[in-house]
Write a structure and sequence with these properties.
- There is one protein chain.
- With 250 residues, this protein is α/β, with parallel strands linked by helices.
- It contains seven helices and 15 strands.
- 30% of the residues lie in helices and 31% in strands.
- A hairpin with a 5-residue loop joins strand 14 and strand 15.
Length: 250
């Protein structure tokens, strides 16, 4: 039987070392494949090593642990590492993951390891519902979505929201359109609107949200309807009557 494998994602070096030492003591058969100090490194480690479990700090620079967990969802088991008890309790109550509070308590870590070893007998859980709950509790009011993560098989693409020209609804999914192409993300327009900066992204139609920095001009067609002309795309975007007033405020 091949040994269980893990990745540690923690931005504070002393805590990362402490976690590694504790795991080595409490789970001698666990093979730690990589350590990451930020979200981007954590996603790279997931894609490179395909671990059985990731020990994941919720608050990390660049991309948060919640962003990373969205990529890990259904692919490996997750143990959240957090200093914030209100996040951890929510995660624990969902039953899909376990958590460890900082500073580490060996007995609590041992309990988390016992639970994750039991969960490893089944496929990793889909964490999407849990992540939405945690995001609502952990995202500061002034912090907005900065990255779009797109899983394509075993590859994960990262698109900064600054590069997005517009979002277009597609049933339960959303088309993310940039100057060079488009991709499908597993979120609705409504969910994205809750996370995007309203000072940068405007809803111009029930199913369309545009980046104001991507707008070249706004004009009326032959029927008097407003259309958005983009800087780096040939298509124009229709503005529905119910959203036309957004341009009067600009």
């Amino acid at each position: 039987m091949k040994p269980a494998t893990a990745v540690i994602a923690e931005d504070e070096p002393p805590l990362r070392r402490e976690m590694r030492d504790a795991l080595t003591t409490l789970w001698p058969g666990l093979e730690i494949l990589a350590e990451a100090e930020n979200g981007i490194q954590a996603i790279h480690a997931l894609e490179t090593h395909h671990p059985d479990v990731i020990f994941l700090d919720i608050q990390m620079p660049g991309m948060t642990g919640l962003d990373v967990a969205r990529v890990a969802s259904g692919r490996c088991h997750v143990v959240f590492v957090t200093a914030y008890d209100q996040y951890a309790v929510t995660a624990f109550e969902q039953g899909a993951v376990d958590y460890v509070l900082k500073p580490f308590v060996p007995a609590r870590l041992a309990l988390a390891l016992a639970r994750v070893r039991e969960r490893m007998k089944s496929v990793p859980a889909d964490l999407e519902g849990l992540l939405r709950t945690l995001a609502e509790r952990s995202r500061p009011a002034q912090q907005h979505l900065r990255w779009i993560t797109l899983a394509q098989g075993r590859t994960v693409r990262l698109i900064t929201v600054d590069d997005v020209c517009y979002f277009q609804a597609d049933n339960k999914y959303t088309v993310v359109v940039t100057a060079s192409g488009q991709s499908l993300v597993n979120k609705t327009i409504r969910e994205l609107l809750d996370e995007l900066d309203p000072n940068v992204f405007l809803q111009i139609h029930r199913g369309t949200v545009v980046n104001i920095n991507a707008i070249a001009a706004v004009h009326r067609d032959l029927r008097g309807r407003l259309e958005v002309q983009l800087k780096h795309r040939k298509e124009t975007l229709q503005v529905s009557a119910s959203f036309a007033n957004v341009f009067k405020r600009m």
